[in-house]
Amino acid sequence: MAALEVDFYKKKLVDATMTGQTSNTTRTLDSLITSDINTSSDKILNNPWRGAEAWHYYILCQRQLYSGQFKSALKTALRLTDYELDMDPKKIYTLVALSAYYNKSYK
Description:
The protein has 107 residues and is mainly α. The chain has helices at residues 2-19, 24-39, 50-67, 70-80, 89-102.
């Protein structure tokens, strides 16, 4: 939902800029968000969909494990390790361990 709101705000800001109808409120919000983006350490507003991608891979990996597609589950779990800042690393590496075990990839 947050990602949709950020996208909605960006679209509204672009539409207002294109038509030349920028108000003081729009300019103020734009400067606040720009300064927030520049000062935030995790840059969540730059890519708000990253959390949704992480949960997608998490659910996909679980689905693959339950359906017996262990090799695909391991690949998905390893892809999920790129999202450590967006999800709990304990959840991620638990799926990696389970996928590796069922895939018989013990190394």
